[in-house]
Write a structure and sequence with these properties.
There is one protein chain. By secondary structure, the protein is mostly helical. It has one domain. It is 47% helix and 0% strand. The protein has five helices and no strands. α1 packs parallel to α5 and α2 runs antiparallel to α5. The longest helix is centred in the last third of the chain and has 18 residues. It is globular, with a radius of gyration of 14 Å. The model has no long low-confidence stretch (mean pLDDT 94).
Length: 149
């Protein structure tokens, strides 16, 4: 399973993020490319505790089995649930120029890699560093595929 904690996986992710452009057409969903990048950055801010959150979703989401399935190589369904703090329809995302948004996302990825403490996820609860690494890779990968990256 790929993870942001693996330098080769991280390099590949950065290359794909840097290849995003506003002319990219999405395969599914309603987010623009800028909204998607902010959405991904919001999850990293949750991990760092910069974006406060409250537990959401079923308690089943916090079980070892659901975490294992969610962080496995199985693809996520399109239109999966998203925590309120990351939901563009429940928040007013302050969008910047795409190059700035991409840079912010990469900078937050680096912050998460370097962080000594990571916080709980609204759906999955307490996560290990390894779980956060897998979740962040899988989440960003899911959305890069949404925009053909």
């Amino acid at each position: 399973m790929r993870t942001i904690l693996n330098p080769a996986d991280m390099l590949h992710l950065k290359e794909r993020i840097n290849a995003l452009s506003t002319s990219g057409k999405r395969k599914w969903g309603t987010m623009t490319v800028e909204e998607m990048v902010v959405h991904c950055t919001k999850q990293l801010q949750l991990a760092l505790g910069e974006l406060p959150s409250v537990p959401q979703g079923s308690a089943m989401m916090r079980t070892a089995l659901v975490k294992w399935i969610s962080f496995s190589a199985l693809p996520w369904p399109k239109g999966s649930m998203t925590p309120n703090e990351m939901n563009k329809d429940k928040n007013s995302f302050q969008l910047k120029e795409i190059e700035t948004e991409k840079s912010d996302l990469i900078n937050y990825l680096e912050k998460v890699i370097q962080a000594s403490t990571l916080f709980s996820h609204p759906f999955f609860g307490t996560l290990s560093r390894k779980e956060w690494g897998k979740l962040n890779y899988k989440h960003i990968d899911h959305h890069l595929q949404q925009f053909n990256q």
